[in-house]
Amino acid sequence: MSKELLTKIESLETPMVEALGEMISYPAISPLDGGEGEFHKAQYLLKKIKELGFEDVKVYASSDPQAAGGERPNIIVRFPGRSGRRLWIVVHTDVVPEGERSLWETDPFKAVVKDGRIYGRGVNDNGQEVIASLYGLFAIKELGLTPEYEVCLAFVADEEVGSTHGIKYLIKKGLFDKDDLVVVPDMGTEEADFIEIAEKSICWMEFTVEGKQVHASLPNLGVNACRAANGFAASLDEALHAAFPETDKLFDPAESTFEPTRRRANVANINTVPGVEVFCFDCRVLPTVPLEDVKKVVEAEIKKAQEKYGVKITYRFPQYEEAPEPTAEDAPVVTELLAAVKKVFPKVAPKVGGVGGGTCGAYFRRAGIPAVVWGQESDCAHMPNEYTKIEHLLNEAKVFALMMLGR
């Protein structure tokens, strides 16, 4: 049965490549990034879904007056299985802007097929998964097979700018259940050898250090914000690492990370002592460490620095996301995905682990729904000349179809 299914998917290569190429000609860029949203792409997908013979299709549209059609459509395709349990494959239809057009060798919104690759904005992120999941299910339907699970394909909006109109909207609608198996193929490796089940908390901090600006020849008349910022940043770096030395082998790197990153320009000339310095830390914190504990260390170091340097230090969180509980390594969605991956990639030993933070799987885990993130992807998302390998497109369709069919 599995062999017949995989052979069927291989025979669908041409229509799959054509469908992916057609789909990316509809830019689905968020209004927040200057686009019109997913409406036109959704209309194309609905037409394609109908052509493929699927009948149980519903659109859940989130209202957005700034978008074409006044809405951000989420398409749900359902296909009955032997059991009442549901398998969801959740992929997004929106894309990021093309960026600097001159860096593209082709039109980003006109697919080019060359040397086993398809080029265009969104073919990798997340177009190949839209087509792979749809045609994986189509192969099952065409062979007259009955999946183990009720298969639910969710083609969602708004992933690139926060998922307010997409996954978060559907979770609020109550579409998902804690017994569901949820796969979010929004991240992957070239070798298809990593299944993400956990992520770290994300804590971005921006500090403003205020002193007093003066001429550099008379520093005694001012308060050097640059010196204070340098000293404070170094002390905070050391304090955070000392306070949270825990490790977790699920992650790579295994420890919490606290990285000084962006620093804004201060004065334009050399001979002025700056009165204001603004800099940031990017912290990726193990789920076992409450972010409130990180905040306590930060505030203690601020107090020390203010007393030592005579400055005022304030801070804000551009991002502050507490990590949800990881998906269990032995959860059904993990074991089913592992089994399917091993059938398609018999020489691969997939690793199950965690990432630094920021996947859509977190929205489901936060709602108490086990979810995994997996895909076979080239590392070119959001880049000029984005591409996907046709081989990856077919392999993902095979893995998804095998998961649907069950063991």
TrEMBL record:
Named cofactor requirement(s):
Zn(2+); Co(2+)
Q: What GO terms are given for molecular function?
A: hydrolase activity; metal ion binding; transaminase activity
SUPFAM superfamilies assigned:
Bacterial exopeptidase dimerisation domain (SSF55031), Zn-dependent exopeptidases (SSF53187)
A Pfam family matched by this chain, by name? M20_dimer
Q: Which UniProt keywords apply?
A: Aminotransferase, Cobalt, Hydrolase, Metal-binding, Transferase, Zinc
* Residue ranges constituting the Peptidase M20 dimerisation domain according to the UniProt record: 197-309
Coiled coil start-end: none
Q: Does the keyword Zinc-finger apply?
A: no
User: What domain of life does the UniProt record list for this protein's source?
Assistant: Bacteria
Family per similarity comment:
Belongs to the peptidase M20A family.
Put simply, this protein is called Diaminopimelate aminotransferase
